[in-house]
Amino acid sequence: QVQLVESGGGSVQPGGSMRLSCTASGSIFSIKYMGWYRQAPGKEREMVARLTSSAVSDYADSVKGRWTISRNTAKNTVYLQMNSLKPEDTAVYYCNAEVIPGGTHYWGKGTLVTVSL
C-alpha cells in the first residue's frame, strides 16, 4: 500500500559526511510527518530528526548542530545531511512517515551507516 525506501548509507571515516534519502510511494495523498530514527547494536531505536508538514523540525541533542533534515514535498522525499560523523553514529537508520489518508505510520527497511577508520 505504502512503501518507504531509504538510500545513501555506507561506510565513512570519522569527521566525514553522508546524505540519506527516503522516498515514499503508494496510496499517498499527502504526508503529515516524516522523520529519521536509528538503532545501534544492543540499543533501542531512537529519534534523531523529524519534520512535520508545517516544516517544524526537531533533533536529538546528540546530533543537533551537526545534521540537517529537509524535504522535497513534490517528490515525497525527506533527506538527512549528516556532517562531522562520529563512530557512535554507527547504526541502522530508518525512515518513518505518517501518511494521509488513514494517518498510519510506516517504516522503511533501514540503511546501514558505519563510521570507522
Overview of this structure, please?
- By secondary structure, the protein is mainly beta.
- Helices cover 0% and strands 59% of the residues.
- The protein contains no helices and eleven strands.
- The protein has strands spanning 2-7, 10-12, 18-26, 30-39, 46-52, 57-59, 67-72, 77-82, 91-100, 104-107, 111-115.
- The strands form two sheets. Strands 2, 4, 5, 6, 9, 10 and 11 form a seven-stranded mixed sheet that branches. It has a four-stranded antiparallel sheet with strand order 1-3-8-7, with no helix packed on it.
- 28% of the residues are buried.
Question: Which properties best describe this structure?
Answer:
single chain; mainly beta; 117 residues; seven-stranded mixed beta sheet; globular
Question: How do the strands and helices of this protein lay out in sequence?
Answer:
Elements: E1 2-7, E2 10-12, E3 18-26, E4 30-39, E5 46-52, E6 57-59, E7 67-72, E8 77-82, E9 91-100, E10 104-107, E11 111-115
Parallel strand pairs: 2-11
Antiparallel strand pairs: 1-3, 3-8, 4-5, 4-9, 5-6, 7-8, 9-10, 9-11
